[in-house]
Predict the 3D structure of the following.
Amino acid sequence: MTQAIRWGVLGAARIARLQVIPAIVRCANARLHAVASRDPEKLAEFQALFGSFKAHDSYQALLEDPAVDAVYIPLPNSMHREWAIRAMRCGKHVLCEKPLALNSREAAEMIEVARECKVLLMEAFMYRYTDRMAQISRVLDSGVLGPIRSVNSTFRFLLDRENTIKEKPELGGGALYDVGCYPLNLIGLVAGAEPVSVAVECEKSNGVDINLSALLRYESGLIASLHCGFNAFGRMHSEIVGSDGTLLAPDTFLDDAGQLALHTRQGGALIPVAASDRYGEEIRDFSAAILENRLPMLSLEESLRNMRTLDCILEQVRAA
């Protein structure tokens, strides 16, 4: 194995063009080796942006490229399971965009294949690689908040682009899959467990949820609320409340500089947050995990646990 992981990217998705490929290019332990797209104009555009790489006209051709060590999958949610499994059966490590799959059954199958093929698989929650999350974790680990009683997390934006995959149910569209999975991941991190009950309210359009709130109750007594949507003004904010204090985390899932607000019986304090490179750190960690024969930051056990919670929410969404 070389000291730089050779990455292949399946598809010319917007997130690959704007975020992940630039992150690969700026990481010392990663190299963009190949991109696959059925659209030659997209491949030409990517080569103009990112320089020389191996252009494949099919996803399978990229997976069969022996020089590819790891594959990034930014395909529509409905295609994650199929192409992650195909990649792993070709011996490739896989960084798969969130959500890992459409449901926990698919996720469990993907995890089993990863273990069978002895390759790494990780759900691409890039926000976990920020200083903001490091500071949140430091406060939680300190115990200064006391036992956590409430978590309230919101991620919504106004979708002003037409005919996107976010609005197509057959491709795994909907606000919960698109942005609600972030608050769900944060709540899962704090709770460290699956809820014992779930209550959901949602508004749907064209077969997908566009405005959703879920109330999750845990055996510990924690009650968490999740809010997401793409039919209203943008909002990203989280609040973690314990018996002894509260932590406010604006811009929870971003990597820009900012502040957390901690309030306890001893008074208030602002905790500075440094700007981070969330996509770069994600690529560095996953590449290093391959090179060092270790696990990356996000565990498959966590992803599967959260997918089971997602199932519970979606069951009520589909019944609405």
User: Anything to note?
Assistant: The longest helix spans residues 300-319. The mean pLDDT is 96.
